[in-house]
Write a structure and sequence with these properties.
heterodimer; B: 5-stranded antiparallel β-sheet
Chain lengths: 239, 424
């Protein structure tokens, strides 16, 4: 099936030699923000929860709460909440997301209030937390820098390792002094590692194929569903 | 705009009061200031996106859509035919606003397990052989605000099901570009990435790239609209909307999915056995009646045309049946040609309303034989009784149960999902 469509696509493709250009290795490295569960994509650097704590207070707590318990933005810490990543199967997810998107700019004031369940006309604010983070905001310019260079303008790689360690520590997964780096982070045993379906015996998501019933996990269909007789067209079609 | 917001809040406050009663009067003091927060503080049964945690009830309700900056939902209640105009196409941005992209400078990088990593400008992509195809697009959470806690805030079909639309998309088959870079044997997944503030990224299987995935720059005869990914987006037809990465800047080929935040978190479905279903990809067969639908009014007993849209992420629509008596009897609706794969199909049925109470619903079957489940059947798949949804919090992904609309004797149409007669 895959082979057939490849052949068909090739047969239809005219000469495209002069379209597009080769990417340079530097370009690829700067643009690649993907970190795989194996750790592939993690840059050098290291940090502990102890080192992460002051960074967290300065750059994260205004949205996520002083202990990462959640405020305007999601709860991060605590093994049983709805954290960004500690309920996920791999610690690399946390690192990856902090690097690519944190600290995210705040929502508009009205959206913030609505998200917190407040009337937009009501005065702020029960917890006393500032509506906006007082520090630098993540804006389009910051985004440009990250997109072009792969460098998060607000956080060094060491700080990202330290913040990841802080969240893992606050969730009771590692100790305060455990060093997170390229080697140790992918090896962290996440408590909910087996909490996902489908997961193959090799710990990987099974390969998907078009219309392959094996890759459909509990599809939302009526039990009366059954394959249609061959040659059945749509019923009651009008031109 | 302001008055809309206020109206919506008032509605929500009422909803909370009702829900509070349903839950046996569980309400906290914070209800005074925060109706939604009060709901989330109840020890409600939690299902859907999010994580199973019987000990805590602090999941924030999802507020995406009309309340989000730049987010919007398709006004399905007024829709005709199958094409959603660009100005009406839903936009779900996940808090990261639409980026302002200079298309002259925008590029697409393809790298990873390929022989020749390459960079394409928009001009490059437009020189490649193009195709135009009609496909629908639906957010995985469309209609999934199923419980009372969520639904009470929604009064119209747009609010409940408006994270879906259908367009004619123009672009390049992804396979064309993959053949140019030379995909290596070990590659199994594509990891696309956006320009937006979160650098949105959701993996899709490589097999999908060779099946029918496309790089899109045109929408309904125009360039892509900004909210829908201008200048370039990925289209993985029939898959949950979130995998159709907008503002596409990069595609990496890998041997495993990226396990990005949203793959493990929001877009997994946590069921009552404590296990989350993830990588669900194709949206199941579904459909709704758009007229008459909630918040509309029939002026009096007369002849009307029942009309709606049906879809399936797995293929084309085979049949749509319509019931006007809450599912006791069904009639085949007319399907408007063309009936296209992974696209909206418009269905219609003439109907004379006699002025009595009526419950209207539609049931779709797709060309694989899959039939849209009733709420009872849907609940069984989730290992819960339909009543369990009354106290659930959070959005259910891939919700596709049949949607009843209830018409009272005055012609008012409301959500009939929780009317006693519709729960079986």
């Amino acid at each position: 099936m895959v082979l057939l469509s490849c052949v068909a696509a090739l047969a239809q493709t005219p000469d495209v030699k002069d379209i597009g250009r080769a990417a340079t290795p530097e370009e690829v490295q700067a643009w690649d923000l993907t970190v795989l569960p194996s750790g592939q994509g993690l840059p050098p650097g290291k940090g502990t929860a102890k080192e992460g704590a002051p960074v967290f207070v300065k750059k994260c707590a205004m949205c996520h709460g002083p202990e990462g318990e959640g405020a305007y933005a999601s709860r991060l810490a605590g093994g049983q909440g709805r954290p960004v990543g500690t309920k996920g199967p791999f610690a690399t997810t946390i690192w990856q997301y902090i690097r690519r998107a944190m600290p995210l700019y705040p929502l508009s004031p009205n959206a913030m209030k609505l998200r917190s369940g407040l009337d937009p006309n009501a005065p702020l604010e029960p917890s006393g937390a500032p509506l906006y983070p007082s520090g630098a905001l993540w804006g389009f310019q910051d985004n440009e820098v990250l997109l072009k260079t792969g460098v998060n303008p607000h956080l060094t790689f060491d700080e990202i390792y330290a913040l990841t360690a802080f969240i893992l520590y606050k969730s009771g997964i590692i100790t305060e002094d455990t060093v997170m780096d390229q080697e140790t982070l992918p090896k962290v045993e996440m408590p909910n590692r087996s909490g996902y379906i489908p997961m193959g015996p090799d710990g990987k998501v099974p390969e998907w194929k078009p219309r392959d019933p094996k890759t459909r996990i509990e599809p939302h269909v009526s039990p009366n569903s059954k394959p249609l007789p061959a040659g059945s067209g749509p019923v009651n079609v009008v031109p | 705009m302001k008055s809309n917001r206020r109206q919506f809040l008032t509605g929500a406050a009422k909803g909370t009061a009702l829900a509070g009663l349903t839950l046996g009067g569980i309400r906290s003091a914070s209800a005074q200031t925060s109706p939604y927060y009060a709901l989330t503080k109840t020890p409600a049964r939690r299902m859907g996106a999010g994580y199973f945690d019987p000990g805590r009830g602090d999941v924030q309700p999802e507020f995406w859509g009309d309340e989000y900056p730049e987010g919007r939902k398709t006004p399905l209640g007024d829709s005709l035919g199958i094409i959603t105009p660009n100005r009406e196409m839903f936009v779900a941005n996940h808090q990261a606003p639409t980026p302002n992209i200079d298309a002259r400078k925008h590029t697409l990088l393809i790298h990873g397990l390929v022989d020749r990593p390459m960079v394409f400008t928009m001009d490059d992509l437009k020189r490649l052989p193009s195709v135009s195809r009609v496909h629908y697009l639906a957010c995985a959470g469309n209609g999934g605000a199923i419980g009372l806690a969520m639904r009470r805030r929604y009064t119209t079909v747009q609010q409940m099901y408006g994270w879906a639309g259908c367009a004619e998309w123009t672009g390049v088959p992804l396979s064309t570009v993959l053949n140019m870079v030379g995909v290596q044997k070990e590659a199994k997944w594509i990891v696309p990435e956006s320009v937006d503030g979160k650098k949105w990224s959701m993996s899709s299987p490589l097999a999908k790239a060779y099946d029918d995935a496309m790089l899109i720059y045109g929408q309904n005869g125009e360039l892509l609209s900004p909210g829908n990914g201008y200048p370039l987006r990925l289209l993985v037809p029939g898959f949950e909307g979130t995998r159709n990465i907008k503002w596409l800047r990069k595609l990496k080929l890998t041997d495993q999915p990226a396990m990005s935040k949203h793959e493990i978190n929001v877009y997994s479905n946590l069921k009552n056995d404590g296990k989350a279903r993830w990588y669900q990809f194709a949206m199941e067969v579904g459909g709704i009646i758009t007229f008459p639908s909630a918040a509309q009014k029939l002026p009096g007993p007369a002849s009307y045309e029942i009309s709606g849209v049906a879809w399936s992420g797995g293929g084309s629509i085979h049949r749509v049946e319509v019931s006007v008596d809450g599912g006791r009897t069904w009639k085949d609706a007319q399907l408007q040609a063309p009936v296209l794969r992974k696209a909206f199909t418009r269905f219609r049925l003439p109907w004379r309303w006699d002025g009595q109470e009526a419950v209207l619903m539609s049931r779709s079957t797709d060309d694989t034989g899959d039939i849209q489940p009733s709420l009872a059947e849907f609940s069984k798949i989730w290992r819960v009784t339909p009543d369990a949804w009354l106290t659930s919090v959070g959005t259910v992904q891939h919700f596709n149960a049949t949607q009843p609309w209830r018409i009272d004797r005055d012609g008012n149409v409301t959500n009939g999902m929780w009317h006693p007669s519709n729960n079986t």
